[in-house]
Amino acid sequence: MKTFGLFSAFSVIISLGETYDNLALMKPAWQQYPFIPRWGAYRAVDGLYTRLDAMGNQCTLSGNSKSTAEWRVDLGGVFSIHHIFIQYRTDNFPWDASNDYTGRFLGYSVYLSNTTNKEDGVLCFRDTIYTRATIPNPVNITCPYHGRYIIYYNSRTHFPYPEGYSVYAYNELCEVEALGCPTPGYYGESCSTPCPQNCQEGHCHITEGTCLGCLPGYKGPRCDKQCNDFKYGLECKETCGDCYQGEQCNHVTGVCLTGCDAGVYGDKCVMECPVGSYGNNCRENCSVNCRIPKTCSRETGRCTNGCQSGWNGITCKTKCSNNRYGPDCNQTCGQCLDDLPCHHVNGSCLGGCAPGFTGLDCNTTCKSNTYGLHCKLNCGNCSNGQQCHHVTGNCPQGCVQGYHGDKCDTRLKIMYVTKHDQVGLAFYGLLAPLIVSVLCNAWCLIRMLRKKQRQKHQKKETKADNPNSPQDPGQLYHDMEENPGYQELGEVSKPSTYDTLT
Fold this sequence. Notes:
Elements: E1 21-22, E2 29-31, E3 68-88, H1 101-105, E4 109-113, E5 122-126, E6 139-142, E7 146-155, E8 173-180, E9 186-187, E10 193-194, E11 218-219, E12 225-226, E13 231-232, E14 238-239, E15 264-265, E16 271-272, E17 277-278, E18 284-285, E19 311-312, E20 318-319, E21 324-325, E22 331-332, E23 357-358, E24 364-365, E25 370-371, E26 377-378, E27 403-404, E28 410-411, H2 422-465, H3 474-482
Antiparallel strand pairs: 1-8, 2-3, 3-6, 3-7, 3-8, 4-5, 4-7, 9-10, 11-12, 13-14, 15-16, 17-18, 19-20, 21-22, 23-24, 25-26, 27-28
């Protein structure tokens, strides 16, 4: 509550040539402890104060023996006030220390409020120094503010009272006037100058034109400056939210004109992102690949507890790559067929394993004397039972006896004889020449028979061609052929039948 000291209570403001309307004239009035209706609260605003005694019926009187006294008038609206005029009861006697009514006036207060509660308003004046000899009456109290209710108050609640004070509190007001501009939003001697446009409720200082408060979003004596430094609202007391890229919010409403920075949302960007969202205006969703799905930083989207297997990056939205898989992508894929990528989570080769490798992740070489694609080829002929090369099938240290080649898959044609085979070989060694001899003789006999058959055929043809020949050599040749020791000379040069054997 603002308190004003003595504003030249003795000054007669009307004499300065300023003219203001009495805004309290004939307005509804009220008092705390009425005496009788004849001297009701309305008597103080009837515009009459030529008689300052009770019998003149121009003054209001409160009840006797009360510790507090309160009176107020309702102006019917909020108006800019210049000063308040008060005429107190004198009973038409000189106003000095000998007048008993001066003690009743000592210690009074005057308020200007927008409500019927004086504590809600402005304290225009409070008497703390006057005595029965010095207190002025009538009095003009400067109060250049705006309000609806003029409130007079006095009390006798705290003993001991200052010297000269009455024992009880009274309000014996013959006249109370609120001098100001009848039209809101104007100021000056004739109330003809408009108040600055951003004054709160259009009210300004009735003589200087400075605003008695600014509309939300403005500041300065004349409310001609917008709120800045990330402030907004009434008296620029509100703080902006987290606007996009740290921009100033609307100076009146606090709304962020270009949206919110990361981690907040709403018109004023003051609400934190709900769980599961992040980024500017909370438009991004936390990744389901977070170790705890959809749990991430509301500003960056970083997964709170890292990524699930097969994913990496701060938001866990990137699959493992570059032949990597598993938790944090820190495992290396095996040998996949045709260099195809492995599965980003479990490392399995999508197209199967390259020749020589097996297992889910194709990181295991062929075992158990197998090699090649799917480890389905066998290589069991390596020396000393060694495993062949898992890809090529080659035996690293040669082959077992009886096999040769890189893969030891070719059987030798040379027969190796053991002691157990010697008896069989001896038998077959004797039998073989006998069989050969029988075959040769059979062959020679067949040749001889065929030759004899040809000779007989030739003799028959010769006899048929020469029927008158005196001599038949047939018998001669017949005799010769029957002689086993005789051979024609032409047969001597023929090779032996054994020479023709191959």
